[in-house]
Amino acid sequence: MGRQRISLETPSFALIAATVLATVAQADTLPISGKYGNKDGCAYARTGESTGSENFFLLTPEAITTATSVCTIKKVIKTDGKSYVATVSCEAEGEDGGTDDTAKITYGPKGYTIGFTSDDRTKWGPLPLCK
Q1: What are the angstrom distances between the C-alpha of 12 and each of 4, 21, 78, 96, 99?
Q2: pTM check: above 0.85
């Protein structure tokens, strides 16, 4: 799955975010409490403002958001303690429509790590609980 950089201040990102919010009403959610991310992801979770960083990762019950894509949780397929397998629909700026994938969201001592079945080399995290 190709990932491109999304400027969080562009109208395209606002359109993607609005689409994600509209889709969330019909989608499943992860049974997690709070938001998990790296420094810039948590800053965005607190303020709603982008730092402009390309190193941006945020996990919420509804979506996985990065500097390059937004992946909406469509269905939680498997639950194992605090770890999950979920079907997601990922969209990036410049793409027409979303790309479906399966995300492996694994909980560990330092937070959540996210991987995708479409690319075993892609690993995001660990993402600790945002404060």
Answers
A1: 13, 14, 32, 12, 17
A2: no
